[in-house]
């Protein structure tokens, strides 16, 4: 961004301070000639690739289904001690 500000400042100074005086044709002709190539346009927001947007969903470990009778039998076995 600093380079842009310095370029604009230099072009303003060149166009206001150093003017050619050749009559009325000099007023309409540009004083500063640009020899720089315009930079490539880049998007402001970086777009993600479709492959990166979708994350893989992994299956969790399957839960063992224990019947309520078996769960209660574990507690009854502990009470008998």
From TrEMBL:
One Pfam family this sequence matches: Vinculin
Biased composition (Basic and acidic residues): 40-55
Cellular component annotations (GO), alphabetically ordered: adherens junction; catenin complex; cytoplasm
Locations listed in the record: Cytoplasm
Transmembrane annotation, as ranges: none
GO MF, one annotated term: actin filament binding
Segments of this protein annotated with the region Disordered: 40-65
UniProt main location, coarse: cytoplasm
Keyword Metal-binding carried by entry: no
UniProt xrefs under InterPro entries: Vinculin/catenin (IPR006077)
UniProt entry tagged with the keyword Cytoplasm: yes
Keyword annotations of the record: Cytoplasm
Gene Ontology terms: biological process: cell migration; cell-cell adhesion
Biased composition (Basic residues): 56-65
Name of the protein this chain belongs to: Catenin alpha-2
